[in-house]
Amino acid sequence: MDLSVRIGSLVLKSPLMSASGCFGYGLEYADIVDLSSLGAVVVKGLFLKEREGHPPPRIVETPSGMLNAIGLQGIGVHRFVREKMPELRRLGAVVIVNVCGSSIDEYAEVTRILSDCEGVAAIELNISCPNIKEGGIQFGCNLASTGEVVAAVRRATALPLIPKLTPNVTSVPSFARAAEENGADAVSLVNTFLAMVIDPETRRPAISNGMGGLSGPAIRPIAVRMVYECAKQVRIPVIGMGGISSARDVLEFMIAGATAVQVGTANFVDPFIWPRLQAGIEDYMTRHGVARVADLVGTVDF
Amino acid sequence: MDLSVRIGSLVLKSPLMSASGCFGYGLEYADIVDLSSLGAVVVKGLFLKEREGHPPPRIVETPSGMLNAIGLQGIGVHRFVREKMPELRRLGAVVIVNVCGSSIDEYAEVTRILSDCEGVAAIELNISCPNIKEGGIQFGCNLASTGEVVAAVRRATALPLIPKLTPNVTSVPSFARAAEENGADAVSLVNTFLAMVIDPETRRPAISNGMGGLSGPAIRPIAVRMVYECAKQVRIPVIGMGGISSARDVLEFMIAGATAVQVGTANFVDPFIWPRLQAGIEDYMTRHGVARVADLVGTVDF
Amino acid sequence: MPPLDVPALVLRNTHLSPDYNVLHLEAPAIAAASQPGQFVMIRTAAGTDPLLRRPFSVFEVLRDAAGSPSGISVLSKRIGPGTARLYDAAAGDRLLVLGPLGKPFSLVSPPAEAWMVAGGVGLAPFATLTEALRSTGAPARLFYGGRTRADLFYLDWFASRGVTLDLATEDGSLGAHGRVTAPLDDALRARAASLPVTLYACGPEPMLKAVAGLARTYGRSSQLSTERIMGCGLGGCYSCVVRVREAGGAPHFVRSCLNGPVFNGDDLVWE
Amino acid sequence: MPPLDVPALVLRNTHLSPDYNVLHLEAPAIAAASQPGQFVMIRTAAGTDPLLRRPFSVFEVLRDAAGSPSGISVLSKRIGPGTARLYDAAAGDRLLVLGPLGKPFSLVSPPAEAWMVAGGVGLAPFATLTEALRSTGAPARLFYGGRTRADLFYLDWFASRGVTLDLATEDGSLGAHGRVTAPLDDALRARAASLPVTLYACGPEPMLKAVAGLARTYGRSSQLSTERIMGCGLGGCYSCVVRVREAGGAPHFVRSCLNGPVFNGDDLVWE
Ligand SMILES: Cc1cc2nc3c(=O)[nH]c(=O)nc-3n(C[C@H](O)[C@H](O)[C@H](O)COP(=O)(O)OP(=O)(O)OC[C@H]3O[C@@H](n4cnc5c(N)ncnc54)[C@H](O)[C@@H]3O)c2cc1C
Ligand SMILES: Cc1cc2nc3c(=O)[nH]c(=O)nc-3n(C[C@H](O)[C@H](O)[C@H](O)COP(=O)(O)OP(=O)(O)OC[C@H]3O[C@@H](n4cnc5c(N)ncnc54)[C@H](O)[C@@H]3O)c2cc1C
Ligand SMILES: Cc1cc2nc3c(=O)[nH]c(=O)nc-3n(C[C@H](O)[C@H](O)[C@H](O)COP(=O)(O)O)c2cc1C
Ligand SMILES: Cc1cc2nc3c(=O)[nH]c(=O)nc-3n(C[C@H](O)[C@H](O)[C@H](O)COP(=O)(O)O)c2cc1C
Ligand code: FES
Ligand code: FES
Q: Which domains does chain A have, with CATH numbers?
């Protein structure tokens, strides 16, 4: 059974990836998950410098979902390369780094540093974090800026480049096209939905940042729709995510048009999910006589 | 305790309304709900003519939500005025009609007919149904068209005019402003989120229309955010909805900025919810020493 | 009577098989008002998972020692999260039960016979129908099909109430080998046209369609209990429509929760 | 040992009060690996409501007849949907339990004394700590506060293990009237500086802050068990941060699920 999928020049042994920000730097999970068994480990968003993030409370549970505004706390690209990459390499992880920036220059600079680091397999360009002012959303909600930042980072790296798109726009496919036209090798979607929970007893937002990003099963039907729409409008691969919690959900996204998928919130609920997802995909392929998982991509009958 | 709220020239005895399409024509619920106890009964979307709607399956359950593509099956405005309004008047319901159209002329025409009908208290302009091509979404996703259709219907009626906005856009507040500038007395939001469920076993969408609108608790945090944003940017009242299932949720929307609220999906789960919502609001007002529910509107501390 | 919503106590949960169970629910007022063919909407869990209620036929009307209606039972087949929760319910739990809902069967009187046709869990509405027919005196016959013999339940119950049983299993382990519509066809063919029969059917849609076809072929009237995905059960959502052709009119969609779930087989239009 | 995720059988659910319960869970491997102060993440329901797991201290390590660890108990206070489900759990249910997680308390040895300070359900980590201290021989004392006498549990359990009890209730119904930090302050003041004491505290944040202050005032070391909202318990989400100042460095956020939940009171920076 062939579970491999291709993202640009990269051939992954499985379509399953961890979603950025939901799997730490990967190493946190190294003693319970075989990192080399994943298609890729997408690590937490990195800026050039270290960042403190927002004060707690940073998350709140919502119906079948969660709201987060972590604020991209992180160790910065230099410490990541120094402190995390050696161990990730040793464990055989295919590492995709989620790159953040407050300016086009910062995006390009972080990307350049990572491109010089052995073992970084691809760049996921985070132009869609809804939770901090400089989180890229000013790039990700404007077509021209999306094109500009993608083009600039394209010039900075030969690695596969995967802009990560926000769902908080009228037409996600136009952003996917802008990414494609400016040299992206794939797009990933969706990042979280900008959302808000207010506690009526205190009349204050439930998380310190006021607003946050909604993830989890609640958003899955919207994410599937966006993946379907984007996959029809671009030729580059689409990496789908949003609420995936079971093999059924992985298959739903792939049939909608995703070449690979990422799992975020469900990994919090069930960090031992990975082998079960893979077994479920294999079971489906056996039952439906599918030899290569890539043959499922975009096969929705609609 | 004063539960009354004001929407344009209309004073409602309570901020609680049924959401369009989730309460039939109101009469279906007349023997279990005292229709005159609601702030308003918002009835199912009406075109000029009768409509068959989409073939079943028309709904599918999703995590903490549901997807629907009913396709605006309905009896048309003439039969509504003739067959439903007399009984609604007799029961003392404050009736708001959700008006649909495939053209600006149709919106205006349906509105004119309703304006001549005794007992119709306001017009909710449905420019946001995601489920049919002519469901208004071509108006509701474009700022200029939104302005145009609101202006045209404004000329057709003296009734309070409430454009209902779609959440499937980058900036809901700009649409709220376009509505306000063109004479709307209030805006209501959110309509459903365009979404999709695919059954991997059949590789076909779960509902006949392929895509549908997501409603229910799943979407609540996104809807609260949009209500908050809009209420800050317009002076006219905002009527909030999206996943409201308890008095806590009503209060959350009002504190975020909603002057009144609508309840849709939760009425399916619990048609006896209305007196409980009211009791919960009153309990909150007692505990927090709030004399007039209108004093809560937009009081979020953020 | 307008429908009620009661937090019904689970009195007993009997597992008939790995899929099928019968839940006894305390709900006197709903029990007293229920007519054969009506249904209830059950909230299978507090909270939002599952979110919507699930529709179930009233299987039996339970009675207390004095013979007064004290509750209802539902016969449930486990196919997804909602029915799984009903399968796992324990005595002492409470479930919100909304009902009775929908249009019931019309009863026939002698000399007409009532032939019930049940596929799988489609048996559910026929226990109350059997009780009601005993009061009209119309002879009752049950054509009952399932996958295998272990999927056919309550045979003694029906037999002991004078119902003639015609069974069919797809694997031939009990009764006729194959679909239940085959013995039904034979029986209809064998019955003199002068002797009136009304068909009552509940089961998978292909079975209903076949029964409607047989009814037409043999000039019999039929009452079919449809099963559509229902969002509300009260006419609020328009999710549950079936296409009907009413006298003279063009086919159009009507809500099966209000205008059904029982329809005249001649009125239904199959896509 | 890496944490395990086991579908633990509920052996028993003891309701201590209308809010508090103790769940006995079969989980030998987790029990064997747990150290005082560690926690587990429990999935309180299948499905998505509630979605995330909830963190609970390991309350007791259960042992079989031969004395081998067979499971754990958790002491839970019902405050929302997750703890409500634990309150309602029945023997025979299964709950996914992930653990053991986090950094444990460091133990002290005689002549140092261990003074435990518990506010409400903050009692939870101190049963296992008491057992462990018995092996070092360090004298143990428990300052334990609650709203009212009915909210103080397991007093005999601690007393029978040689723990000196100092109780306080906010309504004065048992022990000192007011906060538990008042008798603690008195006791610290009374103790000669030459006699070593380590404070161990778990409870509401204002109490932890007060204990940290007292520790500083009297020059004692403190180990505080923090309670932050946790999304994962494994370091994946960065939701559970507390601000610490490590030797010389500027204050910064660290994950309490990995670097805690137990912190040195001197390191914590309160906002
Ligand atoms: C009027 C009526 C009476 C019914 N009576 C019975 C009965 O007595 N016993 C019984 O076991 N079942 C009965 N059903 C079917 C029963 O409602 C479904 O099996 C049940 O809703 C499935 O829920 P689930 O969560 O287990 O499965 P899922 O498949 O996960 O359900 C998902 C959704 O699909 C709907 N759905 C799935 N299958 C059906 C179906 N066959 N009919 C209608 N909706 C469906 C559910 O309501 C839900 O909205 C009846 C249905 C109707 C409409
Ligand atoms: C390391 C650790 C150990 C704990 N040990 C215990 C224990 O032994 N016994 C016990 O009863 N409780 C303990 N708690 C608190 C317990 O986790 C919460 O009471 C519980 O998660 C509340 O869930 P809920 O759904 O009932 O309430 P809700 O208030 O609805 O919870 C909503 C969200 O807030 C979080 N939350 C609410 N209160 C707290 C809190 N005080 N601390 C952390 N998160 C919270 C929940 O995890 C959840 O994400 C511990 C918390 C931590 C961090
Ligand atoms: C706690 C948390 C932190 C996240 N951090 C990041 C991040 O650093 N960079 C990013 O691109 N996306 C981040 N995301 C978004 C996820 O990668 C993913 O796009 C989103 O959660 C939807 O997937 P899910 O529903 O499977 O979680 C974060 C999500 C969560 C819940
Ligand atoms: C079955 C169904 C039918 C609906 N029909 C309409 C409609 O006719 N007109 C309209 O403006 N909105 C319609 N809506 C949208 C609701 O009025 C409401 O905006 C949405 O469901 C969000 O609220 P909720 O989460 O409380 O259901 C419909 C929603 C549902 C679920
Ligand atoms: S189920 Fe809602 S209208 Fe029939
Ligand atoms: S709870 Fe997720 S990082 Fe600590």
A: 5-43+75-193+216-296 (3.20.20.70)
